[in-house]
Write a structure and sequence with these properties.
The complex is a heterodimer of chains A (about 160) and B (about 100). Chain A is built from five helices and seven strands, in the order ααβββαβββααβ. Chain A is an alpha+beta fold and about 160 residues long. In chain A, strands 1, 2, 3, 4, 5, 6 and 7 form a seven-stranded mixed beta sheet that branches. Chain B has five helices and two strands; from the N terminus they run H-H-H-E-E-H-H. The longest helix of chain B has 17 residues. Classes of the chains: A alpha+beta (about 160), B alpha+beta (about 100). At the A-B interface, strand 2, strand 3, helix 4 and strand 7 of A face helix 4 and helix 5 of B.
């Protein structure tokens, strides 16, 4: 039987393995905003999986078109942009292919990144008043990408 | 020899002809977006509407004040992405 890998765990590990990104944020790539103060060190990157619909109506339980969101939080505005653009460039130029990681084995193709959105924390644009709130607003740079994913050679039983 | 020459108005005809089909897709996206996550008050779900723009454009939008953080998340709230999830369910959604 084929059980698909945890795409989000795979991709967050893949991002952490990229030297260019590690030069900017060490290993601070998370799948949700960390709560613990010792982990919540800015700038940091959060990867979210939005969906992974199967590629076609086909009996094979195999390929999906994953949709992911990447958020870079904190630091200076230029810093967040550089980190987001580095992550986007890596996604665009290095993600395609086979990857065998501790989180799972997968093959990626058809990577389509979107544009980078540069916004502060949305509470600011939602009109939240008060110094206590606005002082917490952080620079943010985000992008989405779609990627066709299927399990790698070591998957299945 | 036989030859087919497209009407000079073909693009306009096609754009107009596909409006009902795209309105159906927009309605499906609206319905799915309303059902991606349980909604405590229903305000967000009720704020999702389909709309037209220009001569042939069709879209879906959420007008709730919290729509942006619901869609994209914030430092303190997770990404929920009901609109993009619903769009991905109803066709080949690609980020822009």
């Amino acid at each position: 039987m084929i059980v698909l890998p945890d795409w989000l765990a795979c991709l967050s590990e893949w991002f952490r393995d990229q030297d260019e990104l590690a030069d900017l944020i060490d290993d601070r790539v998370f799948t949700e905003m960390p709560k613990a103060p010792e982990l919540k060190v800015f700038p940091l990157m959060v990867v979210t999986q939005l969906s992974d619909p199967p590629i076609a109506n086909h009996p094979a339980h195999w390929a999906v078109r994953g949709l992911f969101q990447v958020d870079v939080w904190g630091g200076r505005k230029a810093e967040t942009w550089t980190i987001a653009e580095t992550a986007r460039a890596l996604t665009s130029q290095r993600l395609t292919g086979a990857h065998d990681l501790s989180a799972g084995s997968f093959v990626a193709a058809g990577v389509t990144p979107g544009g980078i959105r540069r916004t502060p924390d949305m509470r600011a644009t939602a009109g939240v008043d008060g110094e206590a709130e606005t002082s917490k607003v952080r620079p943010r740079a985000s992008f989405d990408f779609t990627v066709v994913l299927h399990p790698g050679a070591s998957t299945g039983s | 020899m036989s030859r087919f020459v497209a009407s000079p108005f073909l693009n306009d005809l096609l754009a107009t002809a596909t409006i009902p089909a795209r309105q159906s897709v927009a309605a499906e996206i609206r319905r799915d977006a309303q059902n991606v996550w349980p909604n405590a008050t229903g305000d967000y779900d009720r704020s999702i509407v389909t709309f037209t723009y220009g001569d042939s454009g069709v879209g879906v939008e959420a007008n709730d004040p919290g729509a942006i953080p619901i869609e994209y998340g914030s430092e303190d709230t997770p990404v929920q992405a009901p609109m993009r999830t619903a769009a991905a369910r109803n066709g080949r959604f690609e980020p822009s």
